[in-house]
Amino acid sequence: MSSSKTQLTATLKTEIRGFTGRLIFDNQARKNALTLEMWQALPSAVAELVSNKDVRVIVLSGTQAGPFSAGADISEFEETRSNAEKAAHYDAINVAAFKAVKHCRLPTLAEIRGHCLGGGLGLALACDLRIADDTARFAVPAGRLGLAYPAEAVSDIVAAVGSMAAKRLLFTAEVFGAAQAQSLGILSEVTNGDGLADLTEKICAQIAANAPLTLQAGKLAINALQPGAEKGLMDAAHAAAAQCFNSADFSEGRAAFKEKRSPDFKGI
User: Fold this and answer.
1) With 60 as the cut, is the pLDDT of residue 120 above it?
2) 113: left (phi over 0), alpha (psi -120 to 50) or beta
3) Domain holding 76: CATH number?
4) Which of 48, 51, 24, 59 is nearest to 38 (CA)?
5) Helix (H), strand (E) counts: the chain
6) Which tens digits make up the pLDDT trace of 55-95?
7) Please, which pLDDT band fits residue 154 given cuts at 50, 70 and 90?
8) Phi first, then psi: what are they for 22, rounded to 5°?
């Protein structure tokens, strides 16, 4: 099993502890807003964690005790997003980052404290699971800036909360708290600030104890069933399910059940 390590890519950090890989947004001067360089680095950072054979779940978060992310770094917009042509280039980079998280074969969890706004909320919505403490604050602030989000990002908002609630969030740009986010379906669980790290650890341990190939097949199946799913995703889900039945882990699961012990899954 891998020992703890930290790698810095611009202000995007990756960290591996046991079976959990972490992707950490580190731009503390701007509430962990993502620079263009961070957006560009994100797909390769996800791929790095996925390629590590020990990692079974990936957690996205801000720096320790810091906010999740205030979204895209607006201070760069004069250079990176000042007209439609530049915005289209920037949006393509954003969408690639969202897709890297959304279609990552491993389960992903957003651990949210403080600000989770705009593009930060987009990354959280790209995750499979989302939990927060009671300091979390959410918003879709495009209307206050006069910009538009790429349709692919808006589709994740609609998938999470439904079309009418998505319109309200976009139309009003209102800031709302963790309790409302949970009621809208954005969050599965809310805890106090002291309990968030423990809740993350508990969920990650539960995930890591299960058969990795089964989790991957389940994620593919759920994604394939979503409206507008990419072509070929259902075939991939069927193939992943078949792989489970031919795996050593399926044999181990059956043996552990008969022997009344906890299984030791290897992901093979």
Assistant:
1) yes
2) beta
3) 3.90.226.10
4) 24
5) 12, 10
6) 999 999 999 889 999 999 999 998 888 899 999 999 999 99
7) very high
8) -120, 140
Q: What values do phi and psi take at 174, rounded to 5?
A: -70, 150
Closest CA to 150 of 219, 220, 81: 81
Domain-embedded: residue 62: yes
Q: How far apart are the first and last CA of the chain?
A: 16
pLDDT tens per residue, range 24-57: 999 988 999 999 999 999 999 999 999 999 999 9
Q: How far apart are CA 140 and CA 181, in angstroms?
A: 12
Number of domains in the chain: 2
Containing structural domain, residue 13: 5-208
Amino acid at 249: D
Q: Where are the extended beta strands (E) located within the chain?
A: 5-9, 12-17, 20-25, 57-62, 108-112, 115-117, 129-133, 137-139, 176-177, 189-191
Chain mean position to CA 1: 23
166 in a domain, yes or no? Answer: yes
Single-letter amino acid, residue 83: N
* pLDDT of 7 strictly over 90: no
168 within some domain: yes
Of 7-11, 48-52, 133-137, 152-156, the one with minimum mean pLDDT is 7-11
pTM: 0.92
